[in-house]
Design brief:
Helix content: over 70%
Distance between the termini: 67 Å
Oligomer: single chain
Number of domains: 1
Structural class: mainly alpha
Number of helices: 7
């Protein structure tokens, strides 16, 4: 369950993050919020939350504190430090998932207003960083198969490329719009 929900959640997060750049690249309207993006995000959050609950049952047999703190008197070696770091990143991701899921509705959008709502929604990029680092550390800790490492790496690269291409296209479109407005303004004079 922990494994399946981790990769399903990662892929859903990647799809949710690809929708905006795809709209920009296709020169289609990119609204502040869409039902499709929110629904995919909610499913990603649900997978992440189930992953968190299931994951906290795997290594320490449900002893919650041992995922984040060493046993009293235990020496913290490099492996333990990586384990704790991975778990803190995972927990930060879970907290962000709950926040983002709570914001994924029209009521939150109306109450917070677009600027604040969008600012909070942008924590999705922090979430992505936490998820990728958490996943990468567990890839190392558990010496995962090359296929699983490849899925994490490919998904991460795909999201980064899509985001960067979307930003580049958005900037170019902004420059085109500014140049067009300048020409129109100069033509009126």
């Amino acid at each position: 369950m922990s494994f399946a929900t981790a990769y399903a959640g990662l892929l859903l997060l990647a799809v949710a993050l690809a929708i905006g750049p795809l709209n920009v690249l296709r020169r289609r309207p990119n609204p502040v919020s869409t039902d499709l993006r929110r629904d995919i995000g909610i499913w990603a959050a649900l997978c992440g939350i189930v992953h968190t609950v299931a994951g906290l049952q795997v290594h320490m047999h449900g002893t919650f504190a041992r995922y984040f703190l060493p046993a009293p008197g235990a020496h913290v070696d490099r492996g333990a430090a990586v384990f704790f770091t991975a778990n803190y990143l995972g927990m930060a991701g879970a907290v962000l998932l709950v926040l983002l899921m709570a914001l994924s509705n029209d009521i939150a959008l109306r109450k917070l207003g677009v600027p604040l709502w969008k600012l909070l929604q942008r924590s999705t990029y922090i979430l992505l960083a936490a998820v990728v680092l958490h996943g990468a550390l567990y890839q190392i800790l558990e010496k995962r198969a090359a296929l699983l490492v490849s899925i994490l790496a490919a998904t991460t690269v795909l999201v980064l490329v899509m985001q960067l291409r979307g930003v580049r296209e958005w900037r170019q479109a902004s420059l085109r719009d500014a140049a067009h407005r300048a020409r129109e303004s100069a033509g009126r004079k």
